[in-house]
């Protein structure tokens, strides 16, 4: 689809010449605004919890995070796989700000490497009721 056309009138007829098709980054010259992406940043925020203890994560960072956000512990973010057995509150955080926490219940899951998966939550217009809603790793 042509983005810019040059129309000229000559002796009653109008001709159109394609000026730009906007197919490469170098063809975009005009800054028309700014876009913010709400979510976790940086995407790699590694934390450790200990089996037999309650689990909380301090200093979880991102842009415009809110109390509606939730974090789920999974093997793979966005998957419809099983929740992590014996992780407090079915692996879904009970709070995100200022600290991500799963409450005072001890985590008794097997040791291993798991993913922290984020969902924006109802306050942002998103549903976080199933593991596949937690896509951001």
Looking across the biggest beta sheet, what order are the strands in? 1-2
Main sheet characteristics: 2 strands, antiparallel
The N- and C-terminal alpha carbons lie at a distance of: 35 Å
Q: What structural category arises from helix and sheet content?
A: mainly beta
Binned strand content: 15-25%
Helix content: under 10%
The oligomeric status of these chains comes to single chain
Count of helical stretches: 0
Tell me the series of helices and strands, N- to C-terminal: EEEEEEEE
User: What is the CA-based Rg, rounded?
Assistant: 24 Å
List the uncertain runs.
Answer: 1-11
Number of strands: 8
Coarse shape: elongated
Mean pLDDT value: 84
How is this structure best described in words?
0% of the residues lie in helices and 24% in strands. With 137 residues, the protein is mainly β. The strands form four sheets. Strands 1-2 form a two-stranded antiparallel sheet. A two-stranded antiparallel sheet has the order 3-5. A two-stranded antiparallel ribbon has the order 4-7. The radius of gyration is 24 Å and the shape is elongated. It starts with a strand and ends in an 18-residue tail after the last strand.
Defining key terms:
two-stranded antiparallel sheet, two-stranded antiparallel ribbon, single chain, 8 strands, 137 residues, mainly beta
């Amino acid at each position: 689809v042509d983005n810019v056309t040059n129309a000229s009138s000559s002796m009653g007829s109008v001709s159109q010449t394609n000026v730009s098709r906007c197919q490469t980054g170098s063809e975009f010259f005009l800054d028309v605004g700014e876009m913010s992406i709400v979510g976790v940043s940086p995407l790699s925020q590694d934390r450790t919890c200990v089996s037999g203890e309650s689990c909380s994560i301090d200093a979880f960072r991102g842009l415009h995070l809110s109390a509606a956000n939730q974090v789920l512990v999974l093997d793979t973010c966005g998957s419809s796989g099983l929740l992590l057995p014996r992780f407090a509150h079915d692996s879904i955080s009970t709070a995100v700000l200022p600290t991500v926490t799963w409450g005072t219940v001890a985590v008794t899951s097997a040791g291993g490497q798991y993913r922290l998966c984020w969902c924006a939550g109802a306050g942002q217009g998103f549903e976080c009721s199933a593991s596949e809603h937690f896509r951001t790793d």
